[in-house]
Design brief:
This protein has about 130 residues and is mostly helical. The chain has 6 helices and no strands.
């Protein structure tokens, strides 16, 4: 089961990274606000993979320790932490040499990206975890 959970974390992390990468390209086309020096493709993919691998480990431990309530607790924690992470891009201080006219667009790019890892993980979980 643990191998399947790690595979779930890896696959869903790559899917989340791909979705965030595509979103970044669409966002640039729509707003012409280039944040590619700050939000690099490597950071996008590594972030998605690490978050979802960690989610898989936490899910595995919670469902092992708390067989009846582990999944519910995990889902609540994952969603609450995802919403709580919104403060990171909102409070992020961009470099001084950055275009001031696009500063307010940074949260619009990064906040939706925070929800791609949990969406990918929760969407793909039924494929990898059979009851």
């Amino acid at each position: 089961m643990f191998k399947r959970l790690l595979l779930l974390g890896l696959v869903s992390g790559v899917m989340a990274g791909l979705a965030a990468f595509i979103y970044q390209k669409v966002y640039f086309k729509a707003n012409e606000a280039n944040f590619s020096a700050i939000v690099t493709p490597a950071k996008i993919f590594i972030g998605g993979i690490l978050i979802n691998l960690l989610a898989s480990v936490v899910y595995g431990l919670l469902t092992k320790w708390l067989p009846k309530a582990g999944e519910i607790i995990f889902n609540l924690l994952f969603v609450i932490l995802s919403f709580g992470a919104i403060v990171i891009p909102i409070g992020y201080v961009l470099p001084m040499d950055f275009d001031e006219s696009a500063l307010f667009l940074f949260p619009g790019l990064t906040v939706p990206m925070l929800f791609f890892p949990p969406l990918a993980w929760l969407t793909l979980k039924p494929i990898f975890v059979k009851k």
